[in-house]
């Protein structure tokens, strides 16, 4: 299977990058399944139902969230009616929606998508992500009823992401980090066939401070005092993520970092 994962969509510029590039890439790269992390797609904080619909209409088969999952209050209701939205497994036992789901592609392939939040340097104490994912993997083994498994690990620390990648090796087709909005250069296939990337980066304007207009973040770093609200940068956005190909057993056989448009160097399969 040819699978594409795109990192955190950041505001209007990020949504525009998805609209501009994803339909073309689905055809050009013969993509069978596409996952988009959309947790910052609405004004840089959360995802609204309307913007979720736009990402899905542009070609995403599934949209994952993150620690800002329900910053847009209408998502509390929308996620219950839209099974293609995946929130973190360990967000809260009371959270609506699902943290894992198996999707069926047009060709009949079955793809597990799941997401968990990390614990290191995060603003809130979340439940153990490893035990949360253990339950999902036991229910859906890669050599059982699914053809591919994608894990979106939403957290700050690269060490925690790398530990999760090795723990997922042999159980997932791809373990990709999100949340920092900074793409890493360490795409690889681990020893038992799990594709790995520490962070997919963001789909947004990189002439910014992790997707936000520069002035207010700079002011706060320099003076330690806020003056205005953060606002998403609106320049030309780069679509950023990772592409994998899987074999008949669901293991990654090829992995490539993806950069399309905007400031970053162009790359892809």
Structure description:
This protein has 269 residues and is α/β, with parallel strands linked by helices. The protein has one domain: Metallo-dependent phosphatases (Purple Acid Phosphatase, chain A, domain 2, 4-Layer Sandwich), CATH 3.60.21.10. The protein is built from 6 helices and 14 strands. The strands form 3 sheets. It has a 6-stranded mixed sheet with strand order 5-4-3-1-13-14. The chain has a 6-stranded mixed sheet with strand order 6-7-8-9-11-10, covered by helices on one side. It has a two-stranded parallel sheet with strand order 2-12. The two termini are 13 Å apart.
Secondary-structure-derived class: alpha/beta
Q: In CATH, what is the class?
A: Alpha Beta
Question: How are the strands of the largest sheet arranged?
Answer: 5-4-3-1-13-14
Order of helices and strands: EEHEHEHEEEHEHEEEEHEE
Task: Please outline the helices and strands.
Elements: E1 2-6, E2 8-9, H1 11-28, E3 33-37, H2 49-57, E4 62-64, H3 75-81, E5 85-86, E6 100-104, E7 110-117, H4 129-139, E8 148-154, H5 158-168, E9 174-178, E10 188-189, E11 195-197, E12 202-203, H6 215-223, E13 239-246, E14 252-260
Parallel strand pairs: 1-3, 2-12, 3-4, 4-5, 7-8, 8-9, 9-11
Antiparallel strand pairs: 1-13, 6-7, 10-11, 13-14
What's the short story on this structure?
The protein has 269 residues and is of the alpha/beta class. The chain is 24% helix and 25% strand. It has one domain: Metallo-dependent phosphatases (Purple Acid Phosphatase, chain A, domain 2, 4-Layer Sandwich).
